[in-house]
């Protein structure tokens, strides 16, 4: 079975929320509740423009700056931690579901023998992967905890994907990136990765292409043939 990627690709790097699991919806809900509790309206375009795919504190900074606010670092951390606590509560209440098309693609990739990495800004990745029964597919994980501990720049900088490729013992030009966030797609492009797959979860097909996606799909199993 073809994976729908160039022959030069020998390793796969997947974002988590919005690519493998539907938890992006839960993160969006937590961000909205957090900011609206501060009196700051927060809509879909705000999520996509300011926080999607970015490390939590960068998202806080980006959104509040767009509103003309200048939070201190203590305020940024307090707000970001409130959001993290809230998303964990929402996960407990609503559960986690992996996308069926993504599971089929992971199964095909595993059968083809390609190493698989997950690269995410989330500090809750292990919990999400375990709850979604996805851990058995993951050979390397670069999450928010690794990004912080290793002093990596978050997306849209390519550092976390480059670290993922390193952990899979693969050069970026031989690795494919799978992303739904514009910040992640730009990271794949700017990191010189061999193929960037955009996953359109929010009517962003054209803008994902404009930011560097080589191909855009609605579900990962569309790549299978």
UniProtKB/TrEMBL annotation:
GO molecular function: beta-phosphoglucomutase activity; hydrolase activity; metal ion binding
EC nos: 5.4.2.6
Cofactor: Mg(2+)
InterPro entries linked to this entry: B-phosphoglucomutase_hydrolase (IPR010976), Beta-PGM-like (IPR051600), HAD-like_sf (IPR036412), HAD-SF_hydro_IA (IPR006439), HAD_sf (IPR023214), PGP-like_dom2 (IPR023198)
Gene3D superfamilies the UniProt entry points to: HAD superfamily/HAD-like, Putative phosphatase, domain 2
Catalytic activity: beta-D-glucose 1-phosphate = beta-D-glucose 6-phosphate
Keyword set, alphabetical order: Carbohydrate metabolism, Hydrolase, Isomerase, Magnesium, Metal-binding, Phosphoprotein
Pfam families cross-referenced by the UniProt entry: Hydrolase
Family: Belongs to the HAD-like hydrolase superfamily. CbbY/CbbZ/Gph/YieH family.
Protein name as it appears in the record: Beta-phosphoglucomutase
Native organism: Lentzea fradiae
């Amino acid at each position: 079975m073809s994976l729908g990627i160039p022959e030069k690709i020998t390793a796969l790097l997947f974002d988590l929320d919005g690519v493998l699991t539907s938890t992006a919806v839960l993160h969006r809900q937590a961000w909205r509740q957090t900011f609206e509790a501060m009196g700051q309206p927060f809509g879909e375009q705000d999520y996509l423009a300011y926080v999607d795919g970015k490390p939590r504190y960068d998202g806080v900074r980006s959104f509040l700056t767009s509103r003309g606010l200048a939070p201190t670092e203590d305020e940024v951390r307090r707000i970001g931690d409130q959001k993290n606590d809230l998303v964990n509560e929402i996960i407990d209440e609503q559960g986690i579901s992996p996308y069926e098309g993504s599971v089929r693609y992971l199964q095909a990739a595993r059968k083809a023998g390609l190493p698989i990495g997950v690269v995410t800004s989330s500090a809750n990745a292990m919990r999400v992967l375990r709850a979604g029964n996805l851990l058995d597919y993951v050979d390397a994980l670069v999450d928010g905890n690794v990004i912080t501990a290793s002093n990596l720049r978050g997306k849209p900088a390519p550092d976390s994907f480059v670290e993922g490729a390193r952990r899979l013992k693969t050069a970026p030009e031989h690795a494919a990136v799978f992303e739904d966030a514009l910040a992640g797609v730009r990271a794949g492009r700017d990191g010189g990765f061999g193929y960037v797959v955009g996953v359109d979860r929010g009517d962003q097909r054209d803008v994902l292409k404009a930011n560097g996606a080589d191909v855009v799909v609605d579900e990962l199993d569309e790549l299978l043939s």
